Amino acid sequence: MSAPKGLPLDGLKIVELGHYIAAPFATRLLADLGAEVIKVEPPDGDPVRGWGSQKDGHAVWFSVHGRNKLSVTLDLKSAEGKKRALQLAKRADALVENFRPGQLERLGLGPEALHAANPRLVIARISGYGQDGPYRDKPAFGAIGEAKGGLRHLTANPGQTELPPPRCGVSISDDLAGMYAAMAVASACWGRDRPGGDGRGRVIDVDLVSSVFSLMEGMLPEYGMFGWVRQPQGAALKTAAPTNTYPCADGKWLCIAGNSDLIFRRLMPAIGRPELAEDPRFATNGLRCANVEELDAAIAAWTRTLPAAEAEAALEKADVPCSRLYDIRDCAEDPHFHARQTVMRVEDPLLGPVLHPAAPFRLDGVEPPSMVRWTGPAVGAHNDLVFRELLAGEGGA
After folding, report:
1. Helix (H/G/I), strand (E/B), else coil: 72
2. How far apart are the C-alpha atoms of 177 and 150, rounded to whole Å?
3. pLDDT tens profile 322-338
4. Which DSSP letter does residue 165 get?
5. Cα separation of 85 and 78, whole Å?
6. 3.40.50.2300, 3.30.1540.10, 3.50.50.60, 3.40.50.10420: which CATH number matches 243-327?
7. Could you tell me which SUPFAM superfamilies the record lists for this protein (predicted)?
8. Which of 91, 255, 271, 319 is the most buried (most CB within 10 A)?
9. How many helices and strands, by DSSP H and E, does the chain display?
Protein backbone atom coordinates (compact mmCIF):
# COMPACT_ATOMS: atom_id res chain seq x y z
CA MET A 1 0.00 0.00 0.00
CA SER A 2 2.73 2.38 -1.03
CA ALA A 3 2.20 6.05 -1.80
CA PRO A 4 1.79 7.37 -5.35
CA LYS A 5 4.99 8.49 -7.04
CA GLY A 6 5.90 12.05 -6.25
CA LEU A 7 4.86 12.18 -2.59
CA PRO A 8 7.92 13.30 -0.61
CA LEU A 9 7.42 11.16 2.50
CA ASP A 10 6.99 7.86 0.66
CA GLY A 11 8.98 5.30 2.63
CA LEU A 12 8.79 7.13 5.97
CA LYS A 13 7.25 4.85 8.60
CA ILE A 14 5.15 6.35 11.41
CA VAL A 15 3.41 4.73 14.38
CA GLU A 16 0.48 6.64 15.84
CA LEU A 17 -0.47 6.05 19.46
CA GLY A 18 -3.07 8.77 19.23
CA HIS A 19 -6.67 9.36 20.09
CA TYR A 20 -9.20 12.12 19.56
CA ILE A 21 -7.61 14.92 17.52
CA ALA A 22 -4.08 16.27 17.94
CA ALA A 23 -1.86 13.24 17.21
CA PRO A 24 -4.22 11.81 14.57
CA PHE A 25 -4.28 15.22 12.84
CA ALA A 26 -0.47 15.26 12.76
CA THR A 27 -0.27 11.77 11.29
CA ARG A 28 -3.00 12.54 8.75
CA LEU A 29 -0.83 15.33 7.36
CA LEU A 30 2.19 13.03 7.26
CA ALA A 31 0.13 10.29 5.61
CA ASP A 32 -1.23 12.73 3.02
CA LEU A 33 2.40 13.47 2.15
CA GLY A 34 3.06 9.79 1.56
CA ALA A 35 4.20 8.38 4.90
CA GLU A 36 3.12 4.91 5.99
CA VAL A 37 1.10 5.49 9.17
CA ILE A 38 0.10 2.60 11.41
CA LYS A 39 -2.63 3.83 13.74
CA VAL A 40 -2.73 1.80 16.95
CA GLU A 41 -6.22 1.79 18.45
CA PRO A 42 -7.61 0.15 21.58
CA PRO A 43 -9.70 -2.96 20.88
CA ASP A 44 -12.93 -0.91 20.77
CA GLY A 45 -11.39 1.78 18.59
CA ASP A 46 -10.35 5.42 18.91
CA PRO A 47 -13.05 7.20 20.95
CA VAL A 48 -13.31 9.82 18.18
CA ARG A 49 -15.09 7.17 16.10
CA GLY A 50 -18.11 7.88 18.29
CA TRP A 51 -18.11 11.62 17.56
CA GLY A 52 -20.34 13.42 15.11
CA SER A 53 -22.79 12.04 12.60
CA GLN A 54 -22.86 8.33 11.85
CA LYS A 55 -23.89 6.23 8.86
CA ASP A 56 -24.41 2.51 9.32
CA GLY A 57 -22.51 2.75 12.59
CA HIS A 58 -19.48 4.48 11.08
CA ALA A 59 -18.41 8.04 11.92
CA VAL A 60 -18.53 10.25 8.84
CA TRP A 61 -15.66 12.43 10.11
CA PHE A 62 -13.40 9.40 10.51
CA SER A 63 -13.43 8.92 6.74
CA VAL A 64 -11.12 11.97 6.64
CA HIS A 65 -9.56 11.71 10.11
CA GLY A 66 -8.29 8.17 9.51
CA ARG A 67 -7.55 8.32 5.80
CA ASN A 68 -4.33 6.84 4.43
CA LYS A 69 -3.68 5.07 7.75
CA LEU A 70 -3.38 1.38 8.55
CA SER A 71 -5.60 0.60 11.54
CA VAL A 72 -4.51 -2.05 14.02
CA THR A 73 -5.84 -2.84 17.47
CA LEU A 74 -3.73 -3.45 20.56
CA ASP A 75 -4.37 -3.52 24.28
CA LEU A 76 -1.32 -1.54 25.37
CA LYS A 77 -1.91 -2.53 29.00
CA SER A 78 -1.27 -6.18 28.15
CA ALA A 79 2.14 -7.80 27.77
CA GLU A 80 1.32 -8.87 24.22
CA GLY A 81 0.13 -5.38 23.29
CA LYS A 82 3.28 -3.79 24.68
CA LYS A 83 5.46 -6.34 22.86
CA ARG A 84 3.81 -5.63 19.52
CA ALA A 85 3.95 -1.88 20.05
CA LEU A 86 7.70 -2.15 20.58
CA GLN A 87 7.97 -4.27 17.42
CA LEU A 88 6.15 -1.56 15.48
CA ALA A 89 8.44 1.09 16.96
CA LYS A 90 11.50 -0.97 16.02
CA ARG A 91 10.69 -0.75 12.29
CA ALA A 92 9.45 2.88 12.38
CA ASP A 93 11.09 6.22 11.73
CA ALA A 94 8.84 8.09 14.15
CA LEU A 95 6.11 7.61 16.72
CA VAL A 96 3.43 10.21 17.54
CA GLU A 97 1.41 10.06 20.76
CA ASN A 98 -0.92 12.33 22.70
CA PHE A 99 -1.47 10.61 26.03
CA ARG A 100 -1.31 12.66 29.21
CA PRO A 101 2.30 13.09 30.39
CA GLY A 102 3.54 9.99 32.18
CA GLN A 103 0.96 7.61 30.67
CA LEU A 104 3.36 6.22 28.08
CA GLU A 105 5.90 5.54 30.84
CA ARG A 106 3.25 3.80 32.96
CA LEU A 107 2.53 1.52 30.01
CA GLY A 108 6.23 0.64 29.80
CA LEU A 109 6.50 2.47 26.47
CA GLY A 110 8.30 5.65 27.46
CA PRO A 111 11.18 7.10 25.44
CA GLU A 112 13.74 4.97 27.28
CA ALA A 113 11.98 1.74 26.32
CA LEU A 114 11.25 2.92 22.78
CA HIS A 115 14.83 4.01 22.18
CA ALA A 116 16.11 0.72 23.58
CA ALA A 117 14.10 -0.95 20.80
CA ASN A 118 15.06 1.63 18.16
CA PRO A 119 17.66 4.32 18.93
CA ARG A 120 16.79 6.09 15.66
CA LEU A 121 13.12 6.56 16.56
CA VAL A 122 11.80 10.13 16.57
CA ILE A 123 9.16 10.42 19.30
CA ALA A 124 6.63 13.25 19.11
CA ARG A 125 4.67 13.82 22.31
CA ILE A 126 1.61 16.08 22.25
CA SER A 127 -0.09 17.08 25.48
CA GLY A 128 -2.09 19.89 27.02
CA TYR A 129 0.69 21.73 28.84
CA GLY A 130 3.87 19.88 27.89
CA GLN A 131 6.01 17.17 29.45
CA ASP A 132 7.31 19.38 32.28
CA GLY A 133 6.39 22.53 34.20
CA PRO A 134 3.95 23.06 37.09
CA TYR A 135 0.87 22.42 34.90
CA ARG A 136 2.24 19.21 33.37
CA ASP A 137 -0.29 16.91 35.03
CA LYS A 138 -3.39 19.05 34.52
CA PRO A 139 -5.99 17.63 32.12
CA ALA A 140 -6.61 19.68 28.98
CA PHE A 141 -8.62 19.57 25.80
CA GLY A 142 -8.64 21.97 22.86
CA ALA A 143 -10.84 24.54 24.59
CA ILE A 144 -8.32 24.80 27.42
CA GLY A 145 -5.52 25.43 24.92
CA GLU A 146 -7.53 28.33 23.46
CA ALA A 147 -8.22 29.75 26.90
CA LYS A 148 -4.73 29.42 28.39
CA GLY A 149 -2.91 30.30 25.17
CA GLY A 150 -4.58 33.72 24.91
CA LEU A 151 -6.85 33.17 21.91
CA ARG A 152 -10.23 32.96 23.63
CA HIS A 153 -9.71 36.38 25.23
CA LEU A 154 -9.45 37.86 21.74
CA THR A 155 -12.59 36.26 20.26
CA ALA A 156 -14.97 38.38 22.34
CA ASN A 157 -16.81 41.40 20.98
CA PRO A 158 -15.55 44.63 22.55
CA GLY A 159 -17.60 45.69 25.55
CA GLN A 160 -19.73 42.56 25.56
CA THR A 161 -19.91 41.07 29.05
CA GLU A 162 -23.23 39.22 29.12
CA LEU A 163 -22.00 36.40 26.84
CA PRO A 164 -18.70 34.50 27.09
CA PRO A 165 -16.14 34.86 24.30
CA PRO A 166 -16.98 32.12 21.76
CA ARG A 167 -14.70 29.33 20.63
CA CYS A 168 -13.68 29.54 17.02
CA GLY A 169 -15.93 26.60 16.05
CA VAL A 170 -13.31 23.89 15.51
CA SER A 171 -10.68 22.30 17.75
CA ILE A 172 -8.05 24.80 16.69
CA SER A 173 -5.67 24.01 19.57
CA ASP A 174 -5.48 20.33 18.62
CA ASP A 175 -5.12 21.11 14.94
CA LEU A 176 -2.33 23.62 15.55
CA ALA A 177 -0.46 21.22 17.82
CA GLY A 178 -0.88 18.51 15.20
CA MET A 179 0.53 20.75 12.47
CA TYR A 180 3.53 21.71 14.60
CA ALA A 181 4.12 18.07 15.52
CA ALA A 182 4.03 16.99 11.87
CA MET A 183 6.51 19.71 10.93
CA ALA A 184 8.78 18.77 13.83
CA VAL A 185 8.66 15.06 12.97
CA ALA A 186 9.67 15.70 9.35
CA SER A 187 12.42 18.07 10.53
CA ALA A 188 13.77 15.64 13.13
CA CYS A 189 13.86 12.80 10.62
CA TRP A 190 15.74 15.02 8.17
CA GLY A 191 18.16 16.13 10.90
CA ARG A 192 18.78 12.52 11.85
CA ASP A 193 19.35 11.27 8.30
CA ARG A 194 20.93 14.23 6.51
CA PRO A 195 24.62 14.20 5.61
CA GLY A 196 26.42 14.89 8.86
CA GLY A 197 23.38 13.94 10.95
CA ASP A 198 24.00 11.99 14.12
CA GLY A 199 21.47 9.24 13.37
CA ARG A 200 19.85 9.77 16.76
CA GLY A 201 16.15 9.68 17.42
CA ARG A 202 14.95 12.78 19.25
CA VAL A 203 12.02 13.42 21.58
CA ILE A 204 9.70 16.24 20.47
CA ASP A 205 7.52 17.99 23.07
CA VAL A 206 4.49 19.86 21.64
CA ASP A 207 1.64 21.22 23.75
CA LEU A 208 -1.74 22.77 23.01
CA VAL A 209 -1.16 25.92 25.03
CA SER A 210 2.18 26.80 23.41
CA SER A 211 0.75 26.05 19.97
CA VAL A 212 -2.00 28.64 20.47
CA PHE A 213 0.37 31.06 22.19
CA SER A 214 2.64 30.97 19.14
CA LEU A 215 -0.09 32.82 17.19
CA MET A 216 -0.09 35.88 19.42
CA GLU A 217 1.97 37.88 16.89
CA GLY A 218 3.48 41.02 18.47
CA MET A 219 1.50 40.90 21.68
CA LEU A 220 4.23 39.51 23.92
CA PRO A 221 6.98 41.99 22.95
CA GLU A 222 4.43 44.83 23.12
CA TYR A 223 3.50 43.80 26.63
CA GLY A 224 7.13 43.37 27.67
CA MET A 225 8.13 46.77 26.31
CA PHE A 226 5.07 48.93 26.93
CA GLY A 227 2.80 46.95 29.25
CA TRP A 228 0.13 46.84 26.53
CA VAL A 229 -2.53 44.13 26.73
CA ARG A 230 -4.33 43.66 23.43
CA GLN A 231 -8.07 43.63 23.90
CA PRO A 232 -10.82 42.04 21.79
CA GLN A 233 -11.43 43.95 18.59
CA GLY A 234 -14.44 42.14 17.19
CA ALA A 235 -14.57 41.96 13.41
CA ALA A 236 -12.50 45.10 12.82
CA LEU A 237 -8.75 45.50 12.48
CA LYS A 238 -7.57 48.24 14.81
CA THR A 239 -4.47 49.14 12.79
CA ALA A 240 -6.05 49.32 9.32
CA ALA A 241 -9.23 50.90 8.00
CA PRO A 242 -11.67 50.27 6.62
CA THR A 243 -11.44 46.55 7.39
CA ASN A 244 -14.54 45.03 8.92
CA THR A 245 -17.50 42.73 8.36
CA TYR A 246 -20.75 44.34 7.29
CA PRO A 247 -24.43 43.26 7.37
CA CYS A 248 -26.25 42.63 4.10
CA ALA A 249 -29.89 42.70 3.06
CA ASP A 250 -30.30 38.91 3.16
CA GLY A 251 -28.99 38.57 6.73
CA LYS A 252 -25.55 37.43 5.62
CA TRP A 253 -22.25 39.19 6.20
CA LEU A 254 -19.60 40.61 3.89
CA CYS A 255 -15.96 40.99 4.92
CA ILE A 256 -14.29 43.96 3.22
CA ALA A 257 -10.60 44.87 3.39
CA GLY A 258 -10.22 48.36 1.94
CA ASN A 259 -7.29 49.45 4.00
CA SER A 260 -4.66 50.56 1.48
CA ASP A 261 -4.88 54.04 -0.01
CA LEU A 262 -5.40 52.72 -3.54
CA ILE A 263 -8.05 50.21 -2.55
CA PHE A 264 -9.85 52.81 -0.44
CA ARG A 265 -10.07 55.10 -3.44
CA ARG A 266 -11.67 52.29 -5.44
CA LEU A 267 -14.01 51.27 -2.63
CA MET A 268 -15.70 54.60 -2.03
CA PRO A 269 -17.02 55.08 -5.61
CA ALA A 270 -18.16 51.46 -5.62
CA ILE A 271 -20.45 52.11 -2.64
CA GLY A 272 -21.73 55.36 -4.13
CA ARG A 273 -19.65 57.66 -1.93
CA PRO A 274 -16.89 58.98 -4.25
CA GLU A 275 -16.58 62.20 -2.24
CA LEU A 276 -15.18 60.26 0.71
CA ALA A 277 -12.24 59.13 -1.42
CA GLU A 278 -11.17 62.79 -1.69
CA ASP A 279 -11.99 63.79 1.89
CA PRO A 280 -8.75 64.87 3.66
CA ARG A 281 -9.96 63.20 6.87
CA PHE A 282 -9.45 59.85 5.14
CA ALA A 283 -6.31 60.58 3.13
CA THR A 284 -4.08 58.08 4.97
CA ASN A 285 -4.55 54.86 6.85
CA GLY A 286 -3.81 56.59 10.15
CA LEU A 287 -6.48 59.21 9.51
CA ARG A 288 -8.97 56.55 8.42
CA CYS A 289 -8.35 54.62 11.63
CA ALA A 290 -9.04 57.79 13.61
CA ASN A 291 -12.34 58.28 11.76
CA VAL A 292 -13.28 54.67 11.19
CA GLU A 293 -16.77 54.86 12.72
CA GLU A 294 -17.96 57.20 9.98
CA LEU A 295 -16.45 55.01 7.28
CA ASP A 296 -17.94 51.83 8.70
CA ALA A 297 -21.34 53.48 8.91
CA ALA A 298 -21.15 54.56 5.26
CA ILE A 299 -20.12 51.10 4.07
CA ALA A 300 -22.75 49.34 6.20
CA ALA A 301 -25.45 51.68 4.87
CA TRP A 302 -24.57 50.44 1.38
CA THR A 303 -24.23 46.71 2.18
CA ARG A 304 -27.62 46.71 3.93
CA THR A 305 -29.26 47.52 0.58
CA LEU A 306 -27.95 44.43 -1.23
CA PRO A 307 -27.80 40.67 -0.76
CA ALA A 308 -24.29 39.61 0.19
CA ALA A 309 -23.54 37.94 -3.15
CA GLU A 310 -24.52 41.07 -5.11
CA ALA A 311 -22.48 43.35 -2.86
CA GLU A 312 -19.52 40.99 -3.20
CA ALA A 313 -19.81 40.99 -7.01
CA ALA A 314 -19.96 44.80 -7.13
CA LEU A 315 -16.81 45.16 -5.02
CA GLU A 316 -14.95 42.46 -6.91
CA LYS A 317 -15.70 44.38 -10.12
CA ALA A 318 -13.99 47.38 -8.47
CA ASP A 319 -11.02 45.14 -7.48
CA VAL A 320 -11.72 45.50 -3.74
CA PRO A 321 -10.76 42.50 -1.52
CA CYS A 322 -13.95 41.07 -0.05
CA SER A 323 -15.76 37.85 0.71
CA ARG A 324 -19.04 36.66 2.05
CA LEU A 325 -18.69 34.71 5.29
CA TYR A 326 -18.84 31.19 3.89
CA ASP A 327 -20.56 28.33 5.64
CA ILE A 328 -19.73 24.75 4.69
CA ARG A 329 -22.39 24.73 1.95
CA ASP A 330 -20.74 27.74 0.34
CA CYS A 331 -17.35 26.01 0.47
CA ALA A 332 -18.68 22.72 -0.88
CA GLU A 333 -20.43 24.39 -3.83
CA ASP A 334 -17.87 27.06 -4.76
CA PRO A 335 -16.41 26.62 -8.27
CA HIS A 336 -12.92 27.67 -7.15
CA PHE A 337 -12.89 24.94 -4.48
CA HIS A 338 -13.83 22.43 -7.17
CA ALA A 339 -11.42 23.75 -9.81
CA ARG A 340 -8.52 23.35 -7.37
CA GLN A 341 -10.00 20.05 -6.10
CA THR A 342 -10.03 21.47 -2.59
CA VAL A 343 -13.37 19.68 -2.32
CA MET A 344 -13.20 16.10 -3.61
CA ARG A 345 -15.81 13.36 -3.91
CA VAL A 346 -14.25 10.14 -2.63
CA GLU A 347 -15.64 6.62 -2.58
CA ASP A 348 -15.60 5.23 0.96
CA PRO A 349 -16.23 1.46 1.27
CA LEU A 350 -17.91 2.02 4.64
CA LEU A 351 -19.99 5.07 3.76
CA GLY A 352 -20.34 5.32 -0.01
CA PRO A 353 -19.58 8.62 -1.78
CA VAL A 354 -18.33 11.24 0.68
CA LEU A 355 -16.80 14.70 0.36
CA HIS A 356 -13.20 15.07 1.51
CA PRO A 357 -11.08 18.20 1.89
CA ALA A 358 -7.88 17.97 -0.11
CA ALA A 359 -4.55 18.09 1.68
CA PRO A 360 -3.69 21.77 2.29
CA PHE A 361 -0.59 21.65 0.10
CA ARG A 362 -0.08 21.27 -3.64
CA LEU A 363 2.83 19.32 -5.09
CA ASP A 364 3.65 19.62 -8.77
CA GLY A 365 3.05 16.38 -10.59
CA VAL A 366 0.61 15.08 -7.95
CA GLU A 367 -3.13 15.41 -8.38
CA PRO A 368 -4.92 16.05 -5.05
CA PRO A 369 -7.27 13.02 -5.38
CA SER A 370 -4.30 10.66 -5.71
CA MET A 371 -3.14 11.71 -2.24
CA VAL A 372 -6.17 9.92 -0.76
CA ARG A 373 -5.06 6.31 -1.13
CA TRP A 374 -7.91 5.06 1.05
CA THR A 375 -10.46 6.45 3.45
CA GLY A 376 -10.62 5.95 7.21
CA PRO A 377 -10.82 2.17 7.68
CA ALA A 378 -12.79 0.05 10.12
CA VAL A 379 -11.26 -0.64 13.53
CA GLY A 380 -8.41 -3.13 13.16
CA ALA A 381 -8.89 -3.45 9.41
CA HIS A 382 -5.17 -3.96 8.86
CA ASN A 383 -4.31 -6.30 11.74
CA ASP A 384 -3.43 -9.17 9.42
CA LEU A 385 -1.46 -7.00 7.00
CA VAL A 386 0.60 -5.38 9.73
CA PHE A 387 1.10 -8.21 12.21
CA ARG A 388 1.32 -11.15 9.79
CA GLU A 389 3.04 -9.53 6.82
CA LEU A 390 4.84 -6.29 7.71
CA LEU A 391 6.22 -7.44 11.07
CA ALA A 392 6.80 -11.01 9.91
CA GLY A 393 8.72 -9.70 6.92
CA GLU A 394 11.10 -7.95 9.32
CA GLY A 395 11.38 -10.81 11.78
CA GLY A 396 9.08 -9.20 14.33
CA ALA A 397 6.15 -11.61 14.51
Report:
1. strand
2. 15
3. 999 999 999 999 999 99
4. P
5. 11
6. 3.30.1540.10
7. CoA-transferase family III (CaiB/BaiF)
8. 271
9. 19, 13
Give the residue from 82, 72, 84, 61 showing the smallest Cα distance to 36.
72
Q: In what order do the strands lie in the sheet with 203-207?
A: 69-73, 36-41, 13-17, 94-97, 122-127, 203-207
| Reported CATH class of domain 13-215+340-393 | alpha beta
d(CA 109, CA 62): 26
Cα separation, 278 vs 265, whole angstroms = 8
Q: What are phi and psi of 38, to 5 degrees?
A: -100, 115
Residues identified as active-site: 174
Q: How far is CA 172 from CA 151, 208, 381, in A?
A: 10, 9, 29
Residues with Cβ within 8 Å of 153's Cβ and at least 6 positions away in sequence, in order, are: 165, 232
Question: What is the pTM (predicted TM-score) of this model?
Answer: 0.94
CB-based contacts of 279: which residues, under 8 Å, 6+ apart? none
> Residue 62 to residues 28, 39, 73: CA-CA distances in angstroms?
11, 13, 16
